[in-house]
Amino acid sequence: MTTERSDGSTELEEPKQKRQLPIWLESILLLVLALGLAVLIKALLVQAFYIPSESMEPGLVRNDRILVQKVSYWFGGTPQRGDVVVFKDPGGWLPDEDVVGPASRITSLMAKVGLYPSGGHLVKRVIGVAGDRIHCCDDKGRIEVNGVALDEKAYARKGGGACFGPMVGKCDWDAGPVPPGSIFVMGDNRNDSADSSYHLRRGPGYVPGEEFVPVDLVVGKVLVVLWPHDHFRWLHRPDDFDRVPDPAEEPADDSAGRARSGSH
Questions:
Q1: How much is the pTM?
Q2: Where would a tag sit more exposed on the chain, N or C end, judged by fewer CB atoms within 10 A?
Q3: Taking a C-beta distance cutoff of 8 angstroms, is the pair 249, 236 a contact?
Q4: Domain region containing 188
Q5: Band of the pLDDT at 129, cuts 50, 70, 90?
Q6: In a 10 Å sphere around its CB, with 0-12 CB exposed, 13-18 middle and 19+ buried, how is residue 210 labelled?
Q7: In the annotation, is 124 catalytic?
């Protein structure tokens, strides 16, 4: 840019330089931006969690770090049979030490923005959805859903039990129909998982329906095992669940079904 002098000559002006922010201020702004993006990602897309127990072995080991995908259940989507999901404690399912979560202030802050696993959640596999009936077990020790036996040897284990059924009791129980807006979940380590089958019949204080998990408590579907690095892998729904038919329409009088469910 040039300016004209009084004598008619011109003078070249130095271009004005933009004022730069101090490095410390730029660092603070970048940190705020990163935290804002982390909060947005946690709220909308994914969130980090950890495996709190041995209940999902052999596939998911205690203290594995996992990434949960939230978008799968947007716009009316719901958990599907075979999904491994993370959900909030329905009440009394977790021991006190697993409810507390991160201990330090730093890890607590990181958990709030989705950068560190938070406590108070469980990880289980969806076995039944609304309307499904679950039976344990057929003559080969397999869980049946709507009359179809599941071959779960590839991902679940009996853990010393006689069947792929509950941690407590005999391999002879029925559950369902699963209420609308709920799911029936089980850990893959069937002899060491306080899951829906465990809460199905726990004694005189049993409250009908407490074995089911409200879909509203589901955070999302487990997408990948992130850490440790030698455990890294993507999770997929087993193909065997594709053979399970949709639940049949309920008969007008379901007293017989309720009697079967209540007899174990």
A1: 0.71
A2: N
A3: no
A4: 46-261
A5: very high
A6: middle
A7: yes
